[in-house]
Specification:
Blueprint (H helix, E strand, L loop, with lengths): L10 E2 L51 E3 L9 E7 L5 H10 L4 H6 L19 E5 L6 E4 L7 H11 L18 E8 L3 E4 L2 E2 L6 E10 L2 E10 L15 H18 L7 E3 L7 H7 L18 E4 L2 E4 L1 E2 L1 H5 L5 E2 L8 E5 L3 E4 L4 E10 L6 E7 L9 E5 L3 E3 L2 E6 L4 E8 L11 E9 L7 E11 H6 L23 H11 L3
Parallel strand pairs: 3-4, 3-6, 5-7, 6-10, 17-25
Antiparallel strand pairs: 1-9, 2-11, 7-8, 9-10, 12-13, 14-15, 16-18, 18-23, 19-22, 19-24, 20-23, 21-22, 24-25
C-alpha cells in the first residue's frame, strides 16, 4: 500500500490563515498607483478598457491533474452521527442529497480519468445511521498502513451492523461507491498525522480510506468545530451548522475525486510552480486550493438551505475566470500572475520577476502587496520590493489596475531547509477596497528554495535527507502564518 501524505487534512481550521490579513492595514492614501490596459478574460477586443490576452511571460492558474488513481463515479454517502447530536436531522438531510444536488453538479466535473472511462457523476440518495451512545473521547488515525483506533472502530461498527456494509466494487481495482461521512463533536479529539482536531493549527476534517474485507472504502471525518471569527468587522462567522456542512462538502468532493492510496486528482507536485499553492493552502486537492485564506467567506456558497464550499474548476481557471465554482453572481475576479512561481536563489541574494495584474471584467484599481507567508513565527525568510511601489508595514505595495505589469524583487534572508514545507513561501496578495474592510481579496503563492538545498535535494520534512526534490511532501495544515501575522500586528505601533 502506498502511504498517503497528509494532504488529506483537506480542510484546515479556518483560523489557519485569515489573520495574515491583519498585516494589511496601511493608509490607502500612501499607496502608489500604476495603471494599464484592462484585461477581461471573456472579451475579444484589445486595448484600454477592454481585454487583451495575458502576456506569455506570466503563468496560468494551476490545473488539478489526473495522476492515475481511481475515482468514485457514483458516490453514495452514508451519514453517521451519534445520539444527542442536535444537528443530526440537518446533517442527514444534507447527506441524502449531497451528491445529486445543484451544487454537486456545478463542482463535480469534469473529473474524467480517461476517454470513455466513467467520470465523477451523480450518486444515489444518501442514507444515514445514528449510533447509540457517545463517541470515545479521543481517536487516532493514520494513512501509513497502520490500523488506527478510528479505523478499528469503523470496521467493528460495520461488522456488527451498526453501519451498512459498503457497496460492492465494480472491479478489483476500484474502491466501493460508498463514502462513510462520520460526524464527531468537538469534545472528541482526533490525532492524525501529528495534528489535532478543532484547535488552532489543526483541522476541521479530512478524508482517508480503509479496507473492509477486500473492499477499499473511502471515509470522511467531519469535526463539529465552532468557526473562528472573521478578522474583519461586518463579516459574519459561519454558524456551527454552516461550518460543519462547509467541511463536509469539502471532504465529500475530495473523497470522490481522490479516494484511495494512489493519487487521482491533485495539483501536479512535479510542476514546481504549484508548490506555493500546496504549501499555503495546506494541500493540492480540488477543494484545498479554494479555501479562503482571508476570512472573507469567499469560499462559501449555498446549496438549497445548506452552506457548502466552492471547488476548483480547471475550465474556469483556463479561461482566467474565478477558478472556484460556482462563480458568485455580480462579482469580478482579479488577481496578479507572476512570470514564474518557483525560485532557486542563494541565501542573502535576490531574484526579480514580472507580475501581471488581470481581471475577468471591468473593475476598479486594487492594491497589490508582496508578503512572506513562510510557515514560521520566529524567522522572516523573505523580504520584497516592487519597482515604483512603497515598502509599508504590510510589505512591498503598489496600486494596480487590470493589465498593469510590475517588477517584484524577492530576497531570501534565511535557509528554509528546516521548514516543514522545505522552502520559503511568498504571496502576491491582491486586495480590493479599504484594508480594514476589504470587499474581496485573492492570492497567488510562490515558493523559494536556496541554491544549496536545491542541489542537495533536501527532504522537505527538514531532516536533511538527500532525496529527489519531486518527492511527495508532508504538507501540514497549520496556524503558524496566522500566529506570526498576529505577532507582527501586535508589535506595530
Amino acid at each position: 500500500m502506498t502511504p498517503r501524505r497528509p494532504t488529506r487534512l483537506a480542510r484546515p481550521r479556518r483560523k489557519s490563515l485569515p489573520d495574515v490579513v491583519d498585516r494589511l492595514h496601511s493608509d490607502p492614501r500612501c499607496r502608489p498607483r500604476i495603471s494599464g490596459c484592462g484585461l477581461c478574460a471573456l472579451l475579444l477586443a484589445s486595448g484600454c478598457g477592454s481585454s487583451s490576452p495575458p502576456p506569455a511571460a506570466t503563468l496560468s492558474l494551476p490545473v488539478i491533474a489526473y495522476q492515475g488513481g481511481p475515482i468514485v463515479a457514483a458516490p453514495e454517502v452514508v451519514t453517521v452521527t451519534f445520539a444527542g447530536d442536535t444537528m443530526a436531522a440537518d446533517l442527514q438531510a444534507f447527506g441524502a442529497r449531497a451528491t445529486s444536488s445543484p451544487w454537486w453538479n456545478a463542482v463535480r466535473g469534469p473529473f474524467c480519468p480517461a476517454a470513455g472511462a466513467p467520470c465523477v457523476g451523480d450518486g444515489p440518495p444518501g442514507v444515514s445511521v445514528e449510533i447509540a451512545g457517545s463517541p470515545a473521547a479521543s481517536y487516532t488515525d493514520s494513512d501509513d498502513g497502520d490500523r488506527s483506533t478510528l479505523q478499528r472502530w469503523l470496521e467493528s461498527a460495520v461488522a456488527e451492523g451498526a453501519i451498512p456494509r459498503p457497496a460492492a466494487s465494480a472491479d478489483a481495482h476500484s474502491p466501493s461507491s460508498t463514502i462513510y461521512l462520520l460526524y464527531l463533536p468537538a469534545t472528541t479529539t482526533i490525532q492524525y498525522a501529528g495534528l489535532s482536531s478543532c484547535v488552532d493549527g489543526g483541522f476541521d476534517g479530512y478524508h482517508n480510506f480503509l479496507n473492509v474485507g477486500t473492499q477499499v472504502v473511502a471515509y470522511s471525518v467531519v469535526m463539529e468545530c465552532p468557526s473562528e471569527p472573521s478578522p474583519f468587522t461586518g463579516i459574519a462567522a459561519p454558524t456551527l451548522l454552516e461550518n460543519t456542512t462547509i467541511t463536509a462538502s469539502h471532504e465529500i468532493l475530495e473523497a470522490a475525486t481522490d479516494p484511495a492510496a494512489t493519487i487521482a486528482y491533485e495539483l501536479d507536485w512535479t510542476d514546481r510552480n504549484n508548490r506555493g499553492w500546496m504549501d499555503v493552502e495546506g494541500g493540492g486537492e480540488a477543494a484545498d486550493i479554494c479555501v479562503d485564506p482571508f476570512g472573507l467567506n469567499q469560499d462559501q456558497t449555498k446549496d438549497g438551505t445548506a452552506t457548502v464550499q466552492r471547488i476548483w474548476s480547471n475550465l474556469q481557471a483556463a479561461s482566467r475566470l474565478d477558478p472556484c465554482a460556482p462563480i458568485p453572481g455580480g462579482g469580478v475576479y482579479f488577481n496578479a500572475s507572476p512570470s514564474q512561481a518557483f525560485f532557486t536563489v542563494d541565501v542573502g541574494r535576490s531574484v526579480t520577476f514580472d507580475v501581471r495584474a488581470f481581471s475577468d471584467g471591468p473593475t476598479s484599481n486594487w492594491t497589490l502587496t508582496a508578503q512572506d507567508w513562510s510557515n514560521s513565527i520566529k524567522t522572516t525568510y523573505l523580504t520584497f520590493s516592487i519597482a515604483g511601489g512603497q515598502t509599508t508595514r504590510d510589505g512591498a505595495q503598489i496600486e494596480v489596475t487590470a493589465g498593469a505589469s510590475v517588477r517584484v524583487t524577492a530576497t531570501l534572508l534565511a535557509d528554509p531547509a528546516n521548514l516543514d514545507t522545505g522552502e520559503a513561501d511568498g504571496a502576491l496578495v491582491s486586495v480590493m477596497g479599504n484594508f480594514d474592510a476589504p470587499s474581496a481579496a485573492h492570492v497567488w503563492p510562490f515558493a523559494v528554495t536556496s541554491t544549496e538545498d536545491a542541489a542537495r535535494g533536501i527532504d522537505p520534512t527538514g531532516n536533511g535527507e538527500q532525496v529527489p526534490m519531486h518527492r511527495p511532501r508532508f504538507h501540514r495544515v497549520g496556524g503558524a502564518r496566522a500566529r506570526r501575522a498576529r505577532r507582527a500586528a501586535q508589535s506595530m505601533p
